[in-house]
Amino acid sequence: MADGDGLGEAATAAASPTAPAPGMSPPLGWRERLRAGLAGTGASLWFVAGLGLLYALRVPLRLCENLAAVTVFLNSLTPKFYVALTGTSSLISGLIFIFEWWYFHKHGTSFIEQVSVNHLRPLMGGTESSISDPGSPSSSKESETNRQNLSECKVWRNPLNLFRGAEYRRYTWVTGKEPLTYYDMNLSAQDHQTFFTCDTDFLRPSDTVMQKAWRERNPPARIKAAYQALELNNDCATAYVLLAEEEATTIVDAERLFKQALKAGETIYRRSQQCQHQSPQHEAQLRRDTNVLVYIKRRLAMCARKLGRIREAVKIMRDLMKEFPPLTMLNIHENLLESLLELQAYADVQAVLAKYDDISLPKSAAICYTAALLKTRTVSDKFSPETASRRGLSTAEINAVEAIHRAVEFNPHVPKVKWQGIKLF
């Protein structure tokens, strides 16, 4: 890119008229000198012109009389006025704060921030000034578009986490396209390093090999490293996890490898529990082995669901949530919602939502759209467009519409839907 830019600049310089040598400047005419002087003293001239205009209009506008009247008014104000002014401003500020709290609790975002970002900033031309050459309007437009995209971009991890070998690679075989971008792969690699590595990996040779495997970008190299770790230790649970995720081409093969990983992971987890109080390094090792065990059980539950054993998947997920309640980072509750919806157990879905659809927890598209689905389902059977046009929407119908708008606002990258023939957004 640097070479290409240099060639472009050379071509532009060759096509343009010859520039004067450094230190030499062409003689300026009186018009150019006048423009340069005006440009340098523009602010001062505007200030002087404004003062002169006020002085010229002092009699028609009666500035002296009005200034004297304002002075008399301010001197006649009593302390009661300032007390009332302070109380009124405090009341208005309190009402604004209560409205902001209600709006944030309902929509998960600030109303004032939305208005300023979506409405006021475009009117003011943005908060950042772009300096660009007069001859390159396209570059300035692209930079402005990029800044707008960056300010509106939100990155949320996909709770589905499909299997790379059995699902993503199958998509590649069928369509000839790569479903995962480099950014997706980078996020996944960060998660793997967070969940499956710790500072004590050097104590076990197989974990040292796997630490390098999770950082490897080439899938064949990762798979080869997993086999090397199994040669060093046949009970290396993370090696089985990697093979189940990437080498297995079917869900059946992935489940078989995850069962081997579960057997090895439970053995390692019990050892770590016995040694956890010996040193801080052993505590870190227990946390890592706990993450590995929970991840394996969650993936086994997802395998069971994909193979049609939905009730078994629900049981595994419920047991995991009871045994390891702090580990919400793996989004087990979202996978549980999907399984319960497949069973049409709507009461159980509502119970899970009541626990996890909280303002203190990070929201997700799965939670927002599931809540909208349940609220829409309760009113869709009896909904009539003619009746609604006459009497208006009921409270339950308004709640359903607001839930749909909330879900779409959180993640707008879904097809637009219609509810009983009425477009809701």
Secondary structure elements and pairings:
Layout: H1 2-15, H2 30-40, H3 42-56, H4 63-76, H5 79-107, H6 111-124, H7 137-152, H8 164-175, H9 182-196, H10 205-215, H11 219-232, H12 237-247, H13 251-275, H14 280-306, H15 310-323, H16 332-342, H17 346-356, H18 365-380, H19 385-391, H20 395-410, E1 418-419, E2 422-423
Antiparallel strand pairs: 1-2
Organism: Vicugna pacos
InterPro entries: ST7
Family: Belongs to the ST7 family.
Keywords, separated by commas or semicolons:
Serine Threonine Protein Phosphatase 5, Tetratricopeptide repeat, disordered N terminus, 20 helices, 2 strands, disordered C terminus, mainly alpha, two-stranded antiparallel sheet, 425 residues
Report what the structure shows.
The chain is mainly alpha-helical and 425 residues long. Among the domains are: 164-330, Serine Threonine Protein Phosphatase 5, Tetratricopeptide repeat, CATH 1.25.40.10; 359-425, no CATH class. The protein is 71% helix and 1% strand. A two-stranded antiparallel ribbon has the order 1-2. α12 packs antiparallel against α13, α14 packs antiparallel against α15 (310-323) and α16 (332-342) packs antiparallel against α17 (346-356). The longest helix has 29 residues, at 79-107. Mean pLDDT is 75; it is low at 1-28, 126-155 and 418-425.
Spans with pLDDT under 50 lasting ≥5 residues? 1-28, 126-155, 418-425
The total beta strand count reads 2
**Percent helix among the residues?**
over 70%
Beta-strand share of residues? under 5%
Task: Predict the CATH topology of the domain at 164-330.
Answer: Serine Threonine Protein Phosphatase 5, Tetratricopeptide repeat
Q: What is the oligomer described by this structure?
A: single chain
Structural class: mainly alpha
Classified in CATH, the superfamily of the domain at 164-330 is: Tetratricopeptide repeat domain
Distance between the termini: 44 Å
Secondary structure tally, helices:
20
Strand arrangement within the widest β-sheet reads 1-2
Largest beta-sheet characterization: 2 strands, antiparallel
Order of helices and strands: HHHHHHHHHHHHHHHHHHHHEE
Average pLDDT over all residues: 75
Subcellular location: Membrane
Family: Belongs to the ST7 family.
Main location: membrane
Membrane topology: Multi-pass membrane protein
